[in-house]
Design goal:
About 50% of the residues lie in helices and about 20% in strands. The chain has helices at about 5-20, 30-65, 90-105, 135-145, and strands at about 70-75, 80-85, 105-115, 120-125. Helix 1 crosses helix 2 (about 30-65) and helix 3 (about 90-105) runs antiparallel to helix 4 (about 135-145). The relative contact order is 0.12.
Length: about 150
């Protein structure tokens, strides 16, 4: 049988472990237990907050639209335009080509792939040389992608 002294020593040892885990500076057992209860509540709140942050981050990744990669390089008499997106959608190519038209760009040569992802490499010529800058072309392409009915 376990004596009363052994039970008391075991309880005291467990209380000291609880005191150390909860970073309590209390001296009596009731204060140590109260500090432990407060510590547990704080941990529960931290867990809830972290779970919310994780859920928010996962929701953000799911709802986030893939952003297109658009680069425009100025050539001697026009532009080299590269567009890449992780996903393709119907009408995307024609929407981008319409944006070129609205800018006054004539497409001289183009290569496009719409299988799975979307890729476009086009050489465009400015109808009025020097009027349009590369940044304006890039912005027009990005806006056309955003305005595409299936995006």
């Amino acid at each position: 049988m376990v004596s009363r002294e052994q039970k008391r020593a075991s309880f005291h040892e467990k209380l000291q472990v609880l005191r150390s885990v909860t970073h309590s500076h209390a001296g009596n057992k009731m204060s140590i237990i109260a500090d432990a209860a407060t510590y547990i509540k704080e941990l529960t709140q931290k867990i809830a907050k972290l779970n919310q942050e994780i859920a928010s981050a996962q929701h953000g990744k799911i709802c986030q639209e893939p952003s297109p990669l658009v680069s425009v390089e100025v050539l001697e008499k026009g532009f080299l335009i590269n567009v890449f997106m992780d996903k393709s959608s119907p009408g995307l190519l024609s929407t981008i080509l319409e944006a070129f038209d609205e800018l006054g760009l004539t497409v001289l040569e183009a290569r496009a792939s719409c299988a799975g992802s979307f890729r476009l490499e086009a050489v465009g010529e400015d109808e009025v040389v020097g009027v349009i800058d590369a940044h304006a072309v890039e912005q027009a392409v990005v806006q056309a992608i955003k305005n595409c009915p299936s995006n």
